[in-house]
Amino acid sequence: MGNVSCSAGGAAAERRRYPVIDAKVTGENILLRRLELGYTVLDVQQYLNLSCPQAVYHWQKGRALPNLDNFYALSVMLDTTINELVAKKVNIRLVVSKVLIFVRDQQSISVIGRWSLFSHRAFYLQISYSVESHT
């Protein structure tokens, strides 16, 4: 028998990232949709025939995710799709450019910078820090 090796696919695989579910945001989606429709946690528990409500609380807090059957049943109960409930995990990059640091005197510093998420929709932030003397 020969050796079998697997490769990741080179540079193309490095660019492609495996999609991951953001459990916390997905839980928030479940919670918000449940509240929009006026359902209680006990309503969800009974609809899904769960033995206790803890699973629903865990889903809403992002500690766990429903299995596929429960996701499907939730989507029917909450009059939405599984895709609307599931949130994709996104890596947020904060790009900092044009940062100016001003030292006004020995007791105060100001930082003014241009910040942007994903390199677009820039916003400006000014941070001031002062040291008070307690003598």
Number of strands: 3
Instruction: Please give the share of residues in helix.
Output: 25-40%
The span between the termini is 81 Å
The low-confidence parts are 116-123
Order of helices and strands: HHHHHHEEE
Radius of gyration: 24 Å
Mean pLDDT: 75
| Major sheet size, sense and barrel closure | 3 strands, antiparallel
What is the SS-derived class? alpha+beta
Lateral strand order in the biggest sheet: 1-2-3
* Number of alpha- plus pi-helical segments: 6
List the quaternary state of the chains: single chain
What form results from the Cα inertia axes? globular
The portion of residues forming beta strands comes to 15-25%
What's the short version?
With 135 residues, the chain is of the alpha+beta class. The chain has six helices and three strands. The protein is globular and about 45 Å long.
Walkthrough of the structure:
The chain is of the alpha+beta class. 36% of the residues lie in helices and 24% in strands. It has a three-stranded antiparallel β-sheet, with no helix packed on it. Helix 2 packs across helix 4. About 6% of the residues have low confidence.
Could you list some keywords that capture this structure?
single chain; 135 residues; alpha+beta; three-stranded antiparallel beta sheet; 3 strands; 36% helix; 24% strand; globular
